[in-house]
TrEMBL record:
Keywords: Hydrolase, Membrane, Protease, Transmembrane, Transmembrane helix. The chain crosses the membrane at residues 32-50, 57-77. It comes from Candidatus Electrothrix communis. The lineage of its organism: Bacteria, Pseudomonadati, Thermodesulfobacteriota, Desulfobulbia, Desulfobulbales. GO terms for molecular function: endopeptidase activity. Residues 2-63 form the CAAX prenyl protease 2/Lysostaphin resistance protein A-like domain. GO terms for biological process: CAAX-box protein maturation; proteolysis. It comes from the Bacteria. This is CAAX protease self-immunity.
Amino acid sequence: TLLSAILFTLWHPLNALTVNPGAQALFCDPYFLVIVFCLGIVCSLTYILSRSLWVPIIIHWLTVVVWVIFLGGRNLLLK
C-alpha cells in the first residue's frame, strides 16, 4: 500500500516533466503531492479490500472530474 502510494505520487511530477509540461507547477507542488499521496493510499486500500481495479479507477476518475469541473482544477492546469 505504501509503495503503491509512493509510486503513484512520484508519477505525477515525472509525468509533468516528461509529457505534460503545462502541469509542472501543479504536479510538482508539495501540497498537491501530499493530496496525491493520500489518494494513492485510499486507492491502494480499496484495491486490497475489493480485489478489483475498477474501484480505485472509479475513485481516481471521480476525484479528477470533481476537481477539474467543480473546484477549478482546469484553471490550475492551464497556468
